[in-house]
Amino acid sequence: MADRTDELPQAAQNYLEGKRLDEVECIISDLPGIARGKAVPASKFARQSYFHLPDSIFYQTITGGWGEAAGDDGFIERDMILKPDFSTASAAPWTGDWTLQVIHDAYDRDDVPIPFSPRNVLKRVVQLYHDKGWNPIVAPEMEFFLVAPNVDPAQGIKPMMGRSGRPAAARQAYSMTAVDEFGPVIDDIYDFAEHQGFEIDGITQEGGAGQLEINLRHGDPVKLADEVFYFKRLIREAALRHNCFATFMAKPIEDEPGSAMHIHHSITDIETGQNIFSGPQGGETDAFYQFIAGLQMHLPAGLAVMAPYVNSYRRYVKEQAAPINLEWARDNRTTGIRVPLSSPEARRVENRIAGMDCNPYLGIALSLACGYLGLTNQERPRRQFYGDAYEGEGDIPQVMGNALDLFDDATALHEVLGPEFARVYGIVKRAEYEEFLQVISPWEREHLLMNV
């Protein structure tokens, strides 16, 4: 590894300064966003330029089952070639030795990117923007809950015990006292993030019991997706140190708000560096309205990517800090598409639909794909909404099955994301949904067993 040290980000070099690297975790995101890969001794990693994993990791469902996503020649587990992206090298400071994580990209034997690898999907969409002379910029916001350990799935999830010895309180949004309750966990999150070279823009208490939000600095979509991918693991490890769980479920606790991954978007012209959402005099451009229109017109068909599980749809409830439709407005958090207050240079569009349970590569790719279609098709949005959007009607799918039906028919989105990705994703998610439908819930047993 010594001959590759100069290729590492500065934070990784600082982490290893004066230390002997023991191990390298070679990782890649699967469809749910779980880190898959191999841990190898540093000496072996220094001698290899790639390693192999079977492409079946992208056919695996969240429950460990398999979607029959192979082609006409049947289910064949082919080896992929995974190559390291050294710009992603990052510390794993929770380990007992000196370990680095490195995200890898997946290729086939002909050196063609695997089309259903989530990071490759996002890279494909970003390249489409670059081909038009545009540079997409995103800023994700991550919401999550710190909860009491839950080892029995039959039991409901409860808030964690705070520093005061009392359960985390709900409906205390932006309370600094509530944030202080989780102080030791937050301290470790900051420490881990510093070791990994991540810049946190802020941590706030959200409206749910034990619910926090972390904002990240805006930047390149692939880099920011890498950071969210890393952050999910980082936050879980910090929580485990303090006898609690961090969960990124969209709706972990009944009667509490859900957790979103809001995505802020802006686009600059590659040649001039100017924000294409703002004109020379600072006014809103056609591109600004076209991007909004793309979100309005195509997000319903892509919701199965941003809301990838049956639990995801429990988040879209009136008056619980999640949108129920795709109205757009300025400085209005009840709408699915929000235009925050900003200067013309920083003009951006916020997608409030995505859940924190989505794969960050795929959630960002899908959001950008919708905006791209709006731009290239020169679509027009509905009129700006005024008032409380919860008083209007919902216009997004309410159940996973309906969302999958829309996604299967969304050929325009498939062409942007990649038809082979769309095929594999649809089959895997359909397998998960059909498995869920076989489960009888406590509600059914309580209210139907003796009453119908």
Automatic annotation (TrEMBL):
Belongs to the glutamine synthetase family. InterPro entries: Gln_synt_N_sf (IPR036651), Gln_synth/guanido_kin_cat_dom (IPR014746), Gln_synth_cat_dom (IPR008146), Gln_synth_gly_rich_site (IPR027303). It comes from Ruegeria haliotis. SUPFAM superfamilies: Glutamine synthetase, N-terminal domain (SSF54368), Glutamine synthetase/guanido kinase (SSF55931). Its cofactor is Mg(2+). This is Glutamine synthetase. It comes from the Bacteria. Keywords: Ligase, Magnesium. Residues 118-452 form the GS catalytic domain. Pfam families: Gln-synt_C. PANTHER family: GAMMA-GLUTAMYLPUTRESCINE SYNTHETASE, GS CATALYTIC DOMAIN-CONTAINING PROTEIN.
